[in-house]
Amino acid sequence: MGRLDRKTALVTGGARGLGRGIVLELANEGADIVIADLLTDVAEQTAAEVRQLGRQVTVVRMDVTDTRSTQTGIQQALAERGGLDILVNNAGVAPVHTGTEADEEDWDRCYEVNLKGIWKVSQAVIPHFVERRAGKIVNIASIAGRRGGAWIAPYNASKAGVISLTQSQARELGPQNINVNAICPGLIWTDIWRAIGGMPEGEDDPVLHERRTYFDKIIETSCTLQREQTPEDIGKAVAFLASDDARNITGQALNVDGGIVM
Ligand code: NAD
């Protein structure tokens, strides 16, 4: 018996990285899955892993910045899976610069994808949750929304906005028996980190080694538990917040960061 048996969860940005970890942990807990992502080829690989766990899975192509795409994607998910119980708003971008200020394009992208994208997908799902008088929403924020770091202001501001949006959604939807919480992940080695300043040529690219050294240094100097976090760590926290074990938790932002922020 899993904590999410007979539930269906839609995860935006579920193709890779944290999203893949969340998808697999929810499936491990018994949930059927909808992966909503721009990268449908990569999403199909993750979907194959879900099927190996014995769960049902649907892949929908979705751009969270596009109203038509989010509405159509949610309608497709509802039609194919017969309903949704859990929404995980995970899709995000992080245009990181080292030593230079972010530009206007970075501001627009962070706002459109990380913050307004959550609002847009939620708007498409909330009427369904309200009709059922049940639902769980988990928004993926970041510790960057808790404490600003240099050269990445648009990302930090968008993630602080996600924490604030989570509180508004929780207050608005609580009377309809809908829980809304956020998770603030710490440091997870994904493509967001690998691509700082441009995607490396391959695993042997010396640039990748430099980035990994930089990442390890941050963990050494800022993380109380002295270890990086993993997509599975984030997935386990999402599974808890999406389960009835967390039925009386709403409007919270949970740090899963090895003790970076406290
Ligand atoms: P990633 O780049 O590996 O994965 C992001 C996923 O989102 C990809 O599958 C991508 O295709 C999808 N995506 C991007 N834009 C989209 C759009 N417009 N519509 C639909 N899908 C879109 O990054 P990740 O590290 O796995 O990040 C996932 C989330 O976790 C993000 O919200 C990120 O801000 C957050 N986060 C990551 C870290 C970290 O250290 N990696 C830390 C804190 C928070």
From TrEMBL:
Pfam families: adh_short
Key words of the record: Oxidoreductase
Organism domain of life: Bacteria
Domain called Ketoreductase: residue spans: 7-192
Record GO terms (molecular function): oxidoreductase activity, acting on the CH-OH group of donors, NAD or NADP as acceptor
InterPro entries: KR_dom, NAD(P)-bd_dom_sf, Sc_DH/Rdtase_CS, SDR_fam
PANTHER family (alphabetical): 3-OXOACYL-[ACYL-CARRIER-PROTEIN] REDUCTASE, SHORT-CHAIN DEHYDROGENASES/REDUCTASES FAMILY MEMBER
Family statement drawn from the similarity comment of this UniProt entry: Belongs to the short-chain dehydrogenases/reductases (SDR) family.
Name the record gives this protein: Ketoreductase domain-containing protein
